[in-house]
Fold this sequence. Notes:
The protein is an all-alpha fold. It has a single domain (about 15-440), classed as Up-down Bundle (Growth Hormone, Chain: A), CATH 1.20.1250. Helices cover about 75% and strands about 0% of the residues. It is globular.
Amino acid sequence: MKGPVTRPASGRPPGASRRATLAWCLYDTANSAIPAVITTFVFATYFTQAVAADATTGTAQWSMAVTLSALAVAILSPPLGAIADAAGRRKPWLLFFTAVSVLGCALLWFVPPTPEGETPGAGVVLYALIVFGVVNAAFEMATVFYNAMLPDLVAPDRMGRLSGWAWGAGYAGGLACLLIVLFGFVQADPAPFGLDEAMAEDVRASGPISALWYALFALPIFLWTPDRLRSGMGAGKAVRQGLSTLVKSLRNLRSYGGVLRYLIARMLYIDGLNTLFAFGGIYAAGTFGMALEEVLMFGIALNLTAGLGAFGFAWIDDAIGAKRTIVIALVAIMAISTGLLIVESKDWFWGLGLCLGIFFGPAQAASRSLMARLVPRDMAAEMFGLYALSGKATTFMGPMVLGWVTLIADSQRAGMATIMIFLVAGLILLLGVREPRTDTA
């Protein structure tokens, strides 16, 4: 078995100008509207409180939509990633899935609220869940090809910084988009553009706003960030070679140091983190009785602390290593999450929640940079395809278990507590991973 390799800290890769790396970071700003506004704080809360029959039923339905979309990503990302590697270019795939997600966000406008005292229409609920599922799946698939561009843009000794800066830019984007939705629409009096508040049009506008935000800030990556050259293969040959490469990678994965162990560890703890982030707004509304406006304020504050954490830990990642950064973040998240499951006071929830945000960004950004350092340079593209699989192969498990336990126990606290299982298991496996040294000489 091959052990960790000392990775040279070379200069900036050819073609990766400062403008190119800035454009790459701005894509994180662009797609941040999906998790911040749609998946977590605005549309998710609107669906459970104003569309579904009740908060508990809505939580279970929303978790099923997240589960199915994540399962689709787990199935599609490895073969599509391998096919894209064989064909050479990644940006056409990135453009396609970005466009699908943008269109889906705009279509969320057509989800009206359920009149008080009436049973929600099955067609409306199904439409909302299907459109959201497509949006979420396309957003995640786009991220596969976006992340795979990282090794081509920056040297190993600066991967932590670029990855952290991009995550920080993402949280800043989520914060800005939430501010626009909150003060420009939800709390505006009167609602702008003649929007009908009785039909929740001020809240439903979050879909088109997110679509516009995503499209606007995604544009620079397609204009300025270089892509790999086209391989010249025909479509049929690219499919055959891509799938063949994927099979070989899976068979030979044990030969590459701690990559397999790391992928399994990440598969577990990222599932916990994604579930925690996806259901944070729903938990705040259902357990602590927060109204939509207060959930939005909490989301804004959480994105602020998360962005500061991602920026701050970007240098720490390169200084002490990505693995240590992830361990610090996971231990802190577990400790704070335990407190969030116990406290009854809304003030304590606010305080602990903001502290929790500080460690979200570092855990995610350092995970990306650790993978970039672990894989052999000549296998980076196909290994990042497996990295995408590790992030989605069990993503459906967290929301599914949370939804089941929430229904069985009739308690959001009990459902949220299941997240700790994934975080603890992932941390234990991560401790056995050896991070490569970076030669800065």
